[in-house]
């Protein structure tokens, strides 16, 4: 290392003037964040009070609705609904019966028999 007799000239002058427009590589990100914040402020803003929600679509200041919301089901839809409800009830009954049978076998000590274990093993191996 060489030491010279030059005196310190002070801070190095800036390469650009201070008021010069600089390249701002983060402006795009900041602008995007600002836009997203403005957009989401509507979502995060408190929704209209619950009391006022029921008053939409009213004709007077008391909030009584002029027309109630309703739907109409076709005969086919009603038939399908009835079928699904009976299937569910039947399945629930079969499930309850199966659970009762399994509990009875467990209490009698017959749940884990050799035959049942072999059937379960065959079922697992065939499922592959």
Order of helices and strands: HHHH
Number of separate helices = 4
Distance between the termini: 76 Å
Estimate the helix proportion, in percent. Answer: 40-55%
- By oligomeric state, this entry counts as single chain
Strand share of the residues?
under 5%
Q: Average pLDDT value? A: 76
How much is the radius of gyration in Å?
A: 39 Å
Count of DSSP strands: 0
Which residues form runs of ≥5 with pLDDT under 50? none
Largest sheet: none
The outline comes out as: elongated
Class computed from helices, strands and strand pairing: mainly alpha
Describe the structure.
The protein is mostly helical and 128 residues long. The chain has a domain at 90-128. It has helices spanning 27-44, 50-53, 75-108, 114-126. The two termini are 76 Å apart.
Jot down its keywords.
4 helices; 128 residues; single chain; mainly alpha
Secondary structure layout:
Blueprint: H1 27-44, H2 50-53, H3 75-108, H4 114-126
């Amino acid at each position: 290392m060489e030491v010279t007799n030059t005196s310190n000239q002070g801070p190095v002058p800036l390469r650009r003037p201070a008021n010069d427009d600089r390249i701002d590589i983060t402006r795009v990100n900041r602008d995007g964040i600002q836009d997203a914040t403005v957009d989401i402020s509507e979502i995060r803003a408190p929704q209209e009070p619950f009391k006022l929600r029921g008053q939409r679509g009213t004709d007077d200041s008391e909030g009584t609705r002029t027309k109630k919301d309703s739907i109409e089901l076709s005969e086919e839809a009603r038939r399908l609904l009835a079928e699904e409800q009976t299937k569910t009830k039947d399945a629930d009954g079969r499930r309850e019966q199966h659970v009762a049978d399994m509990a009875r076998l467990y209490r009698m000590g017959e749940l884990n028999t050799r035959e049942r274990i072999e059937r379960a093993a065959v079922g697992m191996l065939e499922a592959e």
